[in-house]
Amino acid sequence: MSSSPGSMGSSPDAQSSSPDAVGSPPGSVRSSPADSGTPSAGWVLTGWGTALPEKVVTNDDLASYLDTSDAWIAERTGIRERHVGGTTAELAAAAGAAAIERAGRRAEEVDFVILCTTTPDQMVPATSADVAHRLGTTGGAMDLNAACAGFVYGVVVASSMLQAGLRRVLLVGADTLSRITDWDDRGTAVLFADGAGAVLLERSETATGLLGWDLGVDGSARPLLYCDHGGYMHMDGREVFRRAVRVMVSSGRTAMERAGTTADEVALCVPHQANLRIVEAANARLGIPMSRTALVMDRTGNTSAASIPLALADAADTGRLSPGDKVLLCGFGAGMTWASAVIEWHG
Ligand code: ACO
């Protein structure tokens, strides 16, 4: 029987779980057909797309009314300009539609939409329902909030869904942080912005897709970065910086170890685009040179859950990825959350 959405119990993969998979440590993906002797589902990334609001706010724009300067922002963060505007659903749907189109698929062929966001457009209903409506998908949709680590959490969740029998999952990272940013606070206004990035993951009986992963949270870190209902983002920038470097290094190492790979074998690192200095410090410790690191923060600022798919799409669009490449995704965010995944590129 061929696999179809909702047919978990009767799919070949549901019947073929090998006994040793039960004892696998979390993060170690044991889906190699060669190991089990039976087909085991992974995925291929078949499409990607992005969306950025038209309005661009430069560092000079901010310096025109804040006590800051282009030089300070560029030097301390790596950010030169950012896009601001739109709603989370608008941006997510635009990026999602582009990903579906690039994959040569129709919206009706998408079984599930995961919208990773920390800025839903309203409390109820989930913003993913609006995104599904705009796209014309009906298979299922949900929001996932793990702040700036959200997209990498989403990669792991989508992989589980594809292993459970779904054929195609649209994974979107979209945020409109400008709506919860105090534009008079120079400590945060220079960082945050809006955007969306999406990928279409399609079930495959031959490819692995997700090679290894690590997810984590330290909920005691709430005071370092939070936004209450109706309020603005509050951040202890220095402490977030310190912890971000720490978790990116430990989580990135764990994901690579579980994927059975090393920094030398990683073709490209796609980190959360929060601050260039955070990425430089973390990647130096991870042993991944900046020449093998995807960066878009100079043009996008910190777009939270959108930042990793925006950088991944940019790398794909500029020919930096080849089939078979191992790509390390590394995110961290409010919570504090962190997440790393080693994926295999097939786009
Ligand atoms: N322009 C000019 N001066 C500034 C600005 C600014 N925009 N912001 C702060 N300063 C000043 C400070 O007041 C301080 O002045 P002082 O020495 O007279 O006290 C000085 O610059 C240095 O301040 P620091 O806070 O030490 O500056 P730092 O180098 O740490 O940079 C920054 C600040 C950019 C916020 C950095 O700490 C950072 O990027 N932290 C991580 C933030 C982050 O990644 N957040 C996102 C998390 S992901 C999520 O979930 C959204």
Describe the structure concisely:
By secondary structure, this protein is of the alpha/beta class.
Number of domain modules: 2
| The first-level CATH class name of the largest domain | Alpha Beta
> What is the residue-mean pLDDT, rounded to a whole number?
91
Name given to the CATH architecture of the largest domain = 3-Layer(aba) Sandwich
Q: CATH-wise, what's the superfamily of the largest domain?
A: Thiolase/Chalcone synthase
Structural class: alpha/beta
SS summary, helix count: 13
Poorly predicted regions: 1-23, 30-39
- Write down the overall geometry: globular
Strand order of the largest sheet: 1-7-6-4-5
Percent of residues in β-strands? 15-25%
Radius of gyration: 19 Å
Number of strands: 13
Could you walk me through the main structural features you see in this protein, from its secondary elements to its overall organization?
This protein is of the alpha/beta class and 347 residues long. It is 33% helix and 23% strand. It has a five-stranded mixed sheet with strand order 1-7-6-4-5, with helices on both faces. A hairpin with a 7-residue loop joins strand 9 and strand 10. The model is unreliable at 1-23 and 30-39 (pLDDT under 50). The protein binds acetyl coenzyme *A. Acetyl coenzyme *A (ACO) binds at residues 68, 72-73, 76-77, 147-148, 186-187, 190-191, 225, 235, 237-238, 240-241, 244, 274-275, 278, 302, 304, 333-334.
